[in-house]
Design a protein that fits this description.
By secondary structure, the protein is mainly alpha-helical. A two-stranded antiparallel ribbon has the order 1-2. Helix 4 (58-70) runs parallel beside helix 7 (96-108) and helix 6 (80-89) runs parallel beside helix 8. The chain starts with a helix and ends in a 12-residue tail after the last helix. It is 59% helix and 2% strand. The protein is flat.
Length: 187
């Protein structure tokens, strides 16, 4: 990994490509696949490389998550900012389950602040203006992830995590527009 890094082999990840008809293609990038395979052997080097990448390519994010799950929690926590950015920008896509698994693994590995940060990026409800349903492409993975993440974080940081859950619920209730403006009752 080190000689390849010195030769800038990992410096320019492939970008997502817009295709005619409005779709997006996420090309496979061989260097990120290689890094994912090397994560269990040289986790610190791999984490350092992935942590420095800026990408909108979901296939590179997939490889990054594979790497984070293969390395010790201490190293995997270093990738949380990049994964959070992918979640906010919508490039996490089909890797939501892996990101939820990483959140659980970080919490169990005593990297609770990183797990809390990732949980927020994954689970805070997001609504388009005037919409009552959250912006979620796959409700199943969202609910499945919550079922796995909540018990682990609730045990490790009960007060802090309960506040987050209450806030997420309030965001959802407020979006429903079924709150009486005078009394504040949500019926």
């Amino acid at each position: 990994v080190k000689p390849l890094r010195e030769r800038s082999f990992f410096a320019h990840p492939l970008k997502a490509e817009r295709v005619s008809g409005g779709g997006i293609r996420y090309p496979i990038w061989g260097p990120s696949e290689y890094l994912a395979r090397m994560a269990s052997y040289v986790p610190s080097e791999v984490a350092s490389i992935f942590a420095g990448l800026e990408t909108d390519n979901a296939s590179v994010i997939r490889d990054m998550l594979d790497a984070a799950l293969a390395m010790p929690s201490e190293e995997g926590a270093k990738l949380v900012p990049v994964i959070c950015r992918a979640a906010r920008e919508g490039t996490l896509g089909l890797q939501f389950k892996d990101a939820s698994d990483l959140c659980v693994r970080l919490a169990e590995g005593e990297k609770v602040p990183a797990a809390m940060r990732l949980a927020k990026a994954l689970f805070v409800p997001k609504f388009d203006e005037g919409q009552e349903k959250p912006k979620r492409q796959d409700r199943y993975w969202y609910e499945d992830g919550l079922k796995r993440v909540v018990p682990v974080l609730a045990v490790r940081k009960p007060r802090q995590f309960l506040r987050k859950l209450c806030h997420w619920l309030k965001v959802s209730v407020d979006a429903k527009k079924s709150v009486d403006p005078d009394s504040g009752s949500d019926y």
